Amino acid sequence: MSKNKPVYNNFEDNLFLNFIKVYGNFVFSFNCIVNVFLVKTTLHNSNKRRLRKIFGRTTIFLFVYYFIISSTGYLSFGKDA
């Protein structure tokens, strides 16, 4: 083997395999964007101000929710999480 060619002994060392490992999460994170049109069509008064208010509140709620979940996971498992 040449000295310049990297040797991948385990899964974490290979960048391509790491990409494949997280690709599903990356694609899934954009799945919910189609729900925006459903929410907009079901509103009685769907103007820009109201949509911004709804999406802003939803974003804040989800941030707080995920922060609580991730914090409890980190506090439960420490650096192994």
Characterization of the model:
With 81 residues, the chain is mainly α. The protein has one domain (11-80). Helices cover 64% and strands 0% of the residues. It is built from three helices and no strands. The chain has helices spanning 15-28, 35-42, 48-77. The longest helix has 30 residues, at 48-77. The model has no long low-confidence stretch (mean pLDDT 77).
The general outline is flat
What integer is the average pLDDT?
A: 77
Radius of gyration, Cα only, in angstroms? 21 Å
User: Structural class of the secondary elements?
Assistant: mainly alpha
Please give the domain count: 1
Main sheet: strands, sense, barrel:
none
Alpha plus pi helix count = 3
Could you name the ranges where pLDDT drops below 50 across 5 or more consecutive residues?
Answer: none
In sequence order, what are the helices and strands, one letter per element? Answer: HHH
Strand content: under 5%
Number of strands: 0
Key features?
flat, mainly alpha
Quick summary:
The protein has helices at 15-28, 35-42, 48-77. It is an all-alpha fold and 81 residues long.
Give the secondary structure arrangement, pairings included:
Layout: H1 15-28, H2 35-42, H3 48-77
